[in-house]
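Memo to structure team: turn this sequence into structure tokens by end of day. - J.P.
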Amino acid sequence: MIRAPLVLSLLAAMLLEAGLPLLFAQRTRRWLQLGWDDFVFGTVTFAVAGLLVLLPVVDWASRWASGKDWAQTTSGLAIWALALALLTATVEQTGRYLGLRLLFRGVRRTWSRAVLFGLGFGGLQAIFLVALPTLVRLGNYLLLSQISPFALGMTAREAVEFLAEQRELASMAVWRPFLQGAESATMVGLQTGLSVLVLQVFSRARRAWLFYAGALHTIGQASLLLGTVYLQPWLGLLGLAGVTAIACWWALRLRPQRRLVIPS
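Reply from structure team:
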């Protein structure tokens, strides 16, 4: 039996995960009077750093760790979550630095461009890694709830896995998709703030800003992962929101002040 509230929750989550970054980008682009170029630069950077580099590395590392004894304990998973958070931050911040360095060659690197770059970076992350899986989850829920595994000629093992996925989807809490949507939207804000921080490597000629961005990213990512390990996803979101607030506040403090010109 299909649960209408869960279907509506998944649809609303997809709107939040895919629509909100694009809406923010459109409004910010008009506010800052910029084109879509900087947003596209951000999406290209995440496509390379996040999808082509980070995802395969994380997939390989996860398969390597799955058979280890320490991966069966909570403390072992917590340490592994911290290691993955550090790996994610290192790869993405390196990619962000290279994106700002290479794609903006010959173009003035400004605060406004970094904001739109960050929205593109986080926007593609939200759409590809969160919204698309939510769409697949919705499709599976609508289709799998109407199909019997035995009618598909599955083997006994495949039928067991099929039924387990059916039960997981049927028992999903209605609030869970909203939580994932909130995590996605918060991460877009963090990626935007971090892009402004990494910009300071060029505008202030200090690579320490890359370390600051990496540290904030590691803490925010670790909060999410540890929330999953300890079955406290709301606390994980709260930790991510706190780090995002710090990154965005710092980014706003770094915005150049317009000088007031008084005519003589």
